[in-house]
Structure formats: C-alpha cells, structure tokens
Write a sequence for this structure.
RNA sequence: GCCGGGGUGGCGGAACAGGUAGACGCGGCGGACUCAAAAUCCGCUGGGCAUUGCGCCCGUGGGGGUUCGAAUCCCCCCCUCGGUACCA
C-alpha cells in the first residue's frame, strides 16, 4: 500500500477556504424545519490572545456532537461569540500600555482565526461581542427593564471590596474571603451600589431545578447556594427600648429555653442604638476592627471567637429571662436577621463563645439513653433529644417541641414560622472602566432617573486618558462624559460612573445570538419560539453558582415580562471535564501547560481535536500525553492509505452488498455505524473512536498491507465511504478530502448519516462461555438460537468441564441467552 | 466538617441493565520489509505458578456482606480531585 502520508497542512487549509467561499455553514434561523437543535457552548473570554488547550477541549467535541446531529437531519445552530468586557482585558491593556478596546478587538480578530482552525460549524454572521455598542445597548436595555420592574435597586450596604482590583465584587466572586479569580483578599466596605433583586426569584429558581436535565452536582450546588432554610423567627424585646426588639432566625426553636445571651453582627444597625454609653468606645473599636479585617484574617486566627458586651439586655419572650446582648463577628450581618439567640449548650459556636467569655450554659435538650451535665460538657450537644427545663414544653421530643414553640409565638406577638435564604441580591456595580455603563442619571432635583430607552446605548467613551483603577470609577473623572442633562427636568445632572458586572453581559447572550442581525429589537420572538430552549448547553462546572444562576434568573425575568417564551434557558446541560497533564491540572506556575500550536503544526488540527476526544470521557476529563497523540496520527494515516489506494470517480453507492465482504468485516462495519452513532448521541467520543479503530483494524486484516487483489475495489470504496461519513464529525477537514477522493460531492457533513442493518449484527453462531460455579472454564461455539437444554448438554459434553464437575452434585444450571452457561455444583 | 466526582495493567482509559475484566490507544518485547535506520505491516504483552499437555491460582483502593455469578448492588473504612464552609 502507498506510503504517502496525509498532507494535513495543505488539505486543512484548502477545505477551510472552501467552506468559507461556499458559506458552507450558513444557518438560516428562520427556515422551516421540524428538528431544530440549539447547541450552545459557553463563549470565550479573549483575555489572552491565543487559544489554549482548554478551548480546544471545550469546542472541538461539542462541534463533533453538533455535526452528528446535522448529519442526522437536524438544523443545528452552533453560534460563537466573545465575552469581551472585564478586568483581564483592562489589565492586559495596562500591561502593554494600550487601550482596552484596542487590545480586545485585536484579540478577537486573532482568536476568531484560531477558532476557525478547530474546524467548527460556526456561522459567524451570528457572532456577538459583548463589548460592542450593538450588544451592550441591550445590556443597558435589560438594566432599564429590571429597574422598571423594581428589580434593579440602589442600596447602601456592606459590599465585598477588593483593594487590589479597586472594585466591588459579587458574593459569587468571593471564595473564602478572597477574590476567586486572583486570590486577592477582600474587605467589607459600606457603599451605595446597584443590585439586581435575584432574591425575588429564589423559590422559582429552586423549584425549577427539579425539572431540568442538568448534572446532579450542579443542581445540588445551586440548591446549596440558594440555601433555603426553614425555621422560626423570634423577637426578643430590649430592656429600656420600648419599641425595639431583636429579631433572630433559628432552626432550633426547641432550644429557646436554653438561650443565655443574644449576639448582634458587627454590621447590625442596632449595635449603635443599643450599646450603653459606658461601653460605646469599646464596642465601636471592636466593630471597626471586625469590619476592616479581611475574611482571611477573621478566619485565620484559629477561629477563636471574639466579641464585646454592649451593656444592654433583652428578654426571652417565653420565660422572661434577662439576656445580655453581645456583638461578635461570628454572626454574619448578611444572613438571616444579622442577629442570633445563643444557645451554648446546643450550638458549637455559641458554646465556644460562652466558654471563652464565661457566659452561662444551660442544658435544655437531653439525649435519649444518657444524661449530659454542664460541668462535663466538652462540646455542644447539637442532636435532637428530649426537652428539659423548658416550662410546659419539657418532656417533648425536639421535633415536636420545635413546632409547639413556634406555634406559641404568634399569639404573644413574638414571631412565628420563617424561611431564610443564603442567596443575596446580586451586586452589579463595578468601579472599573472596561464594562457596560449603567444607564442611569443622577439629578440633584429629580434624583435617580433612567436614561430613556431611545437614548441607548450610553456609549462607553473611547477617549479616556486614564482608565486605571483608583477606587472610584475612572468614568467619574471624565468631565465631558459624566456631566449630562436630566432627561426629566433638563437641568444639570451626572451619569452613573460605574459599569456593570460582566455576568450581566453573559446572562442573555443565548437570546441575543438569535437576533444578532437585528439592531431594532433586543430579541427576536419568532425565532426564540422556534429555537428555545437550548438543546444542549456545555461549559465548565466552575460556573455552577455564578453564571448559571444569573442566566437562569435573567431568562426567567424576560419570560415573566413577555420577552422570552421559555423560563429556563437550557433543557440539558453538561460540563466538560478538565484536561490534565500527568494527572495534574495545567498551570503556568507548574510549567506544564500544553501548547496546542506545537501539535497542530506537527499533526494537524483534526488529529489534535480527535486525540483530545480520545483521551477520556468528555464529562470526566482526560489526561494529555505527548506520545499518545501518535495513536490518532497513525489511525488517520491508516485510513488515508486506504483512501489513496482505492480512489474513485463515481459516487459511492448507498447500500452495500454483503456478498462482497468477509462476514466479519461486514458485521464490524455495521456495528461501527451503530456504536459510533449511539456514542455520539451521548457524547461518548472516546469509545466511538475505538469502534472506528476496530473497523480499520479489520480492514487491514482483510486487505493486507498491499491491498488484496481479491477484494473488489468498488466494494472497498463503498465501504470506505461509510467509514468516512461516520468519521466526518471527528475529523472534518480530513473527511472532506477523503470524501472527495472517493468521488463524493462536497460537502461530507451535508451527507446523511449512514444507516446500519440490524440484521448484519446478528450472528448465527455465538461463542458461549461455560462457567462452573461462576468461574470461566471453557468456551463453546453454538448456534445463537440454541435452547437452554442444548446448551447445557453441550456444556456437559466439554472435556474441560468434566474435570471440574466430576464427583460433584449438580445443583442447577443458569443460562444467559447469547452469553453463557453456568453449571452450579456442590 | 458538609456536598459532588473519581480510585481498574508500566501509562491514558473500556466494560450497555450484576454475566468472558482490561476493548481501543500509548509504551514494551518479538518478527517481516530494509545494506541499515525511520516509516509501515503482523504477533505477543495484568501478576504468579506451570510451561511435559491443556492448565491452575490471584487480581478492579482496603475490609465485610448479598448472589449461581460483583469493577458493577449493600454496609464500614482509606486515598484523591473539585465545590463550599462560623448560614444560626
């Protein structure tokens, strides 16, 4: 057989040009079609100007899936765009002393070219770029809609401030007290900010999680993030303040008689009001210190509890006990009511605090079977038990008592059942330049006034001299931009100087793609009806609690106001795993980052993308090996040699004649078509590739190295034409060339997926396994339709079996049709 | 701590619904081709014992269990990766 090697460089370049020239991936979103599939993979963030291996791992396999759907007759929409606002572009611009807009546009140009190398079916007419006015006009429009519906509000409150980035961050962007992107510490700061009231949607976001086909882990993470907690709200009147009471939230109302003090979070406004004069200075100092400390510092100190006494007292509504009111930073200002009732005997945190500050500990829940004693207590008893020392509730089991206590409260005007969520409102103001301007105007006379819709977009000014972060938005320093007139009264006014969190940009891009050609409307309702929800959404699991909550929220909001036909963006979602090197995560610091270009130059992009798919289960991730890629390279070249050895000038036939092929070849071919199809439908790329390799191995056995003269060239060509079609989604450039050489008309991805003949998979004789007591002892050939009795007789006939059953009593025989016979003996 | 994923040859990884563990590939060994090498093709390749025959024993992180039969189901434990963490 020829030893010519597949000339990937020339072939790939040629077909890419051809696809472009023929506009081969043109998608008509308005076309009538009964099987539409919106395959969406998260768009890219052009922070660096090169595609890294993660992009290939993300985009190549999804395109393979999309191509498979297309060959199966679906009209597939597979768009691509750029999430191009944000800090990385700004930081990069600072580094190279350029302008964010310029570096962003350059990166997009470059990356688009690289994306084309992947060979995906992107129709670039639908591209969206979030940093361009024709996109962010609609980001601003969305803001106005939210404002109109009372879901965009300005609040003063404590926010996560990053001193390094000089901007506010959303809760979702802060992990363990540090910025999740850069690892920089974050402090609390009081600021006025715009918030989107996502908390209005908690119940809906939670309920719908049960209806969607998303990875279980992601659903769990969202549930935890929203953090619905059922419990009881209890009000404790404060001594000497007739109209003031401290409201707490608790999930353990059964421990109410064990409360020995109350705690306010340092952020709580009541601290200032309630603190007695003699203790003012101490409390103020504590509060200040607690708030200025980063969360890192707060948690670093071995979790030792700190706090101060306010000098004030409250009253337990149930038993009238006098309770000292403390301030401590182990109580979070942003959860529940920002204050708790402390039950040291039954809550570990309260226990530690009480021990440290020598506050009383009172046991009100006893376990069943033994009795706890305060003196001997080394930790809080947090399990349920039997209520003791709890007035007329004593003797009740925790679960019963909790309900009884909660039921008693409303009558005393002291509280009742309550639900609390962990999810907070989404803070969207950012004090940075490279983002979408907030379309709001601040007028001295009229207050906050929205920019009229017809004035959108509020353009982000290009001519900025200094966009560097300085703690306040750089836009605020631009006199000619910040100063404007009030749309309401015409008087002098100022624009909002902040820009929006980039998660706002990506919260509706899936809808904007469908109207990317229209500047007159944000979305195209007709197309949305046809294409939504997204058939398959693919992206990293790291977006579980950020982007994926926001995109659900915004989709739902747009649904509620009649702009979107569906309430949930994606019916099905999967996460790609991570690609590792030697089992380790790739990172610059480890110096183990694989550079795709090196391998694409050497093997071509088809081999590269195919090898990535071969390394492992797409959802679990794979491990990159510099040597392993040669396996795919060999495979491609093995197919290539078959192609060049059996070129054709006629269109390959549709149906194959079984008589032209050895039985095993014919069967393997049909099996390959079936298995590859099944695997592609469920994104099992690695096993699909194995199946194709098996077929090629069979072909080489049949045809031999030099090509068997007995084999009919036309028949081989027909078979290869089937192989090329099932291979096309994996190696689009290669298969385009192979298809052409076999006499096929372009393009191969416009061909229908081949049929397989189920009858070809049926074997007349099967190798049955014979087991004795479940252990493999022999194999026999028998007709596929042999009866149980026949199989048992054959098994007993076997010489090898004889030795294992001689002198033993046969207990029973188990026959698994088509597979095995198991003789059970004693 | 809690939630989720994962632990299978020298390596990456297969195994549908409990039914031949290790498909496919890398690497390794042997052979063919070659003056030679590369490339290519073919064969072998979990461990141990036996290799005078076929064969026999062990083996899917560890320990128990259910079953005729367990990588797969149940219980306990270990390791690892990811998420989250004073949430009252």
């Amino acid at each position: 057989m020829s030893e010519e090697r597949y000339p990937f460089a020339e072939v790939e370049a040629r077909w890419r040009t051809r696809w472009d020239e023929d506009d081969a991936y043109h998608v008509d979103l308005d076309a009538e079609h009964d099987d539409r599939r919106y395959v969406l993979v998260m768009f890219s963030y052009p922070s660096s100007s090169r595609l890294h291996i993660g992009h290939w791992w993300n985009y190549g396999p999804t395109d393979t899936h999309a191509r498979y759907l297309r060959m199966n007759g679906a009209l597939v929409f597979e768009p691509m765009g750029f999430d191009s606002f944000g800090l990385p572009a700004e930081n990069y611009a600072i580094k190279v002393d350029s302008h964010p807009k310029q570096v962003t546009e350059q990166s997009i140009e470059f990356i688009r070219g690289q994306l084309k190398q992947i060979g995906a079916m992107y129709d670039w007419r639908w591209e969206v770029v979030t940093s361009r006015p024709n996109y962010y006009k609609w980001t601003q429009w969305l803001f106005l809609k939210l404002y109109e519906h009372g879901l965009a509000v300005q609040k003063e409150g404590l926010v996560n401030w990053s001193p390094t980035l000089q901007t506010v961050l959303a809760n979702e962007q802060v992990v363990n007290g540090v910025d999740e992107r850069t690892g920089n510490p974050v402090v609390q700061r009081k600021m006025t900010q715009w918030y989107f009231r996502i908390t209005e949607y908690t119940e809906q976001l939670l309920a719908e999680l049960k209806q969607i086909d998303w990875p279980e882990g992601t659903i769990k993470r969202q549930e935890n993030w929203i953090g619905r907690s059922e419990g009881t709200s209890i009000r404790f009147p404060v001594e000497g303040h007739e109209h003031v009471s401290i409201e707490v939230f608790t999930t353990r109302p059964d421990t109410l008689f064990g409360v020995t003090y109350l705690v306010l979070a340092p952020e709580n406004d009541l601290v200032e009001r309630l603190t007695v004069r003699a203790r003012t200075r101490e409390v103020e100092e504590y509060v200040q210190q607690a708030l200025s400390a980063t969360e890192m510092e707060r948690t670093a100190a071995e979790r030792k509890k700190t706090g101060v006494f306010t000098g004030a007292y409250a009253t337990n509504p149930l038993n009238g006990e006098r309770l000292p009111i403390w301030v401590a930073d182990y109580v979070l200002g942003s959860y529940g009511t920002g204050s708790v009732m402390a039950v040291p005997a039954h809550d570990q945190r309260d226990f530690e605090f009480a021990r440290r500050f020598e506050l009383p500990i009172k046991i009100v829940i006893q376990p069943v079977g033994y009795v706890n004693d305060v003196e001997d207590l080394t930790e809080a008893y947090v399990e349920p038990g039997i209520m003791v020392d709890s007035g007329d509730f004593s003797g009740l089991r925790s679960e019963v008592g909790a309900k009884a206590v909660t039921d008693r409260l409303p009558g005393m005007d002291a509280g009742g059942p309550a639900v609390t969520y962990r999810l907070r409102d989404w803070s969207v103001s950012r004090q940075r330049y490279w983002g979408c301007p907030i379309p709001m105007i601040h007028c001295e006379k009229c207050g906050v006034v929205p920019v009229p819709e017809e004035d959108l977009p509020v353009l982000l000014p290009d001519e900025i001299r200094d966009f560097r972060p300085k703690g306040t938005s750089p836009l605020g320093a631009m006199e000619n931009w910040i100063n404007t007139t009030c749309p309401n009264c015409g008087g002098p006014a100022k624009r909002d100087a902040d820009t929006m969190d980039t998660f706002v940009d990506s919260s509706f891009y899936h809808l904007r793609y469908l109207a990317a050609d229209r500047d007159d409307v944000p979305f195209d309702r007709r197309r949305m009806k046809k294409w939504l929800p997204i058939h398959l959404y693919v992206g990293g699991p790291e977006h579980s609690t950020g982007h994926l909550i926001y995109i659900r929220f915004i989709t739902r909001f747009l649904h509620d106001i009649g702009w979107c036909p569906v309430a949930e963006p994606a019916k099905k979602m999967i996460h790609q795993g991570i690609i590792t090197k030697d089992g380790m995560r790739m990172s610059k610091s480890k110096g183990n980052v694989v550079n795709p270009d090196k391998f694409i130059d050497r093997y071509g992009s088809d081999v590269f993308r195919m090898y990535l798919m071969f390394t492992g289960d797409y959802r679990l991730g794979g491990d990159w090996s510099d040597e392993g890629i040669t396996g795919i390279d060999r495979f491609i070249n093995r197919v290539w040699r078959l192609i060049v050895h059996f070129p054709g000038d006629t269109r390959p036939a549709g149906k194959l004649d079984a008589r032209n092929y050895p039985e095993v070849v014919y069967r393997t071919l049909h099996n390959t078509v079936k298995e590859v199809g099944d695997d592609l439908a469920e994104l099992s790329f690695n096993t699909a590739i194995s199946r194709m390799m098996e077929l090629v191995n069979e072909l080489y056995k049949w045809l031999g190295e030099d090509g068997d003269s007995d084999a009919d060239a036309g028949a081989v060509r027909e078979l290869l034409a089937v192989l090329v079609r099932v291979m096309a989604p994996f190696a689009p450039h290669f298969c385009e060339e192979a298809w052409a050489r076999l006499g096929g008309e372009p393009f191969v991805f416009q061909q229908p997926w081949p049929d397989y003949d189920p009858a070809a998979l049926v074997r007349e004789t099967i190798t049955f396994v014979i087991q004795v007591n479940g252990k493999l002892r022999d194999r026999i050939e028998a007709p596929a339709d042999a009866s149980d009795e026949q199989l048992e007789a054959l098994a007993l006939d076997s010489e090898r079996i004889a030795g294992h059953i001689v002198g033993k009593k046969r207990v029973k025989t188990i026959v698994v049709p088509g597979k095995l016979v198991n003789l059970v003996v004693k």
The mean pLDDT of chain A is 90.
